[in-house]
């Protein structure tokens, strides 16, 4: 027990001294840390003082440099100001000299103006004196000649006209002939170049279509029992089917090319199929109409492609209407081929004459678009064509071509070109055909138009109506009157008759003097 107490006491004393030792050691460590911190703080303070001193030195140097640059800039500015002041002083001196020169010139001009005014007054006075002398001279001449000035002038002009009538007439005819020759040469050159560059075929359309048969037995099947098959075909197509003694062929007759095409296509399908009865006939005709509609649209697209016209801005309905011209004829000429030819000719001549080529091309292609619908709508094809193009958004200069190519004097250059191209296309040999009655009637009207003038003895229409020769009484008129008469006859033909191309008027005034030597 005593040992335990002694152990505890020794442990407590040892712990006390150990704790005191560690506390002193810790205090020494803390003091060392504080001393290190104070030493670092002092070092930082010294470094800061050194940096502050360096910054102050650099700032002073920079300030000194800025002041030095400012003094240099001030010195340069002062030198520039002095230079400008000297230049301004020199300019002021020059300006003063110029003012003095201008003032001297103004004074000189005033002196010249005063002299010119005096000269003008003197000239007016001299002019008045000259007019007075002229009047006095005219009065004296009138007293001597017993004629007024107007009567004397009229007599002189009459004498000069009588003496120079032949020379004036000869000169007039020479100038007129030269002008006509030059115009004709240029026109022939333009038209010749256009026609030479355009090579198109000429095919005359007829009002009949022929369908070949594999054998004569097929004729009976097409006619049907009691003719019911052929009656159904004629009823649904609106055409007449002619079955005659011609072997292996049936003729489809009708004035509508579209109906004839429907009938031909339907008949060929029926012959190939072999089933021919009224029900099948109606179905086949419906199929033929649909195929023909596709063919018509393709014809319109092909026409635009051939001319290089974009289809982007053209309504598909208008393309469909254009394709209908493929099955429309005018005096035996295919309307679509005619329109293509007019468009190509118009474009070629428009390029030569510096006109709007696209207006000429589109105007030529659509100038007869009214013929595609003139069987279904009232009105002439020029007005119908104008309305159609307006409806589909064409500009006025293109729409006008439909009307302009039928006017005597078109309003625009492009319309004149389209009118000329239309006449060229329609007047080419073989392009169109007239019946004998219409041909004879046109020649009679042509001769009658020239026979109605005074002084005309005989009139002959020659060269298929392309030229008219007029013989006049040489005693009833002179050369000048004959020239006027030829022009009046040409104007009357233009105003009253319709004809393709142009008609040449040749007036002949011939004097024959016959004497006999015996």
Question: Which structural class best describes the helix and strand composition?
Answer: mainly alpha
Strand order of the largest sheet: 1-3-2
Number of structurally distinct domains: 3
Helix tally equals 14
Descriptors:
single chain; 518 residues; mainly alpha; Hypothetical protein af1432; Alpha-Beta Plaits; 3 domains; 3-stranded antiparallel beta sheet; 14 helices; 8 strands; 70% helix; flat
Describe this entry's structure for a reader.
- There is one protein chain.
- The protein is flat and about 200 Å long.
- The chain has helices spanning 2-145, 149-197, 217-223, 228-237, 257-273, 278-307, 316-324, 335-352, 357-366, 381-391, 396-404, 413-427, 436-451, 479-496; strands at 208-212, 240-242, 249-253, 329-330, 333-334, 456-462, 467-472, 504-508.
- 70% of the residues lie in helices and 7% in strands.
- α2 crosses α8 (335-352), α5 (257-273) crosses α6 (278-307) and α8 (335-352) packs antiparallel against α9 (357-366).
- 22% of the residues are buried.
- It has three domains: 20-119; 208-427, Hypothetical protein af1432; 436-508, 2-Layer Sandwich (Alpha-Beta Plaits), CATH 3.30.70.1350.
- The strands form three sheets. A three-stranded antiparallel sheet has the order 1-3-2, with helices on one face.
- The chain has 14 helices and eight strands.
- A hairpin with a 6-residue loop joins β2 and β3.
- The protein has 518 residues and is mainly alpha-helical.
- It starts with a helix and ends in a 10-residue tail after the last strand.
- The longest helix has 144 residues, at 2-145.
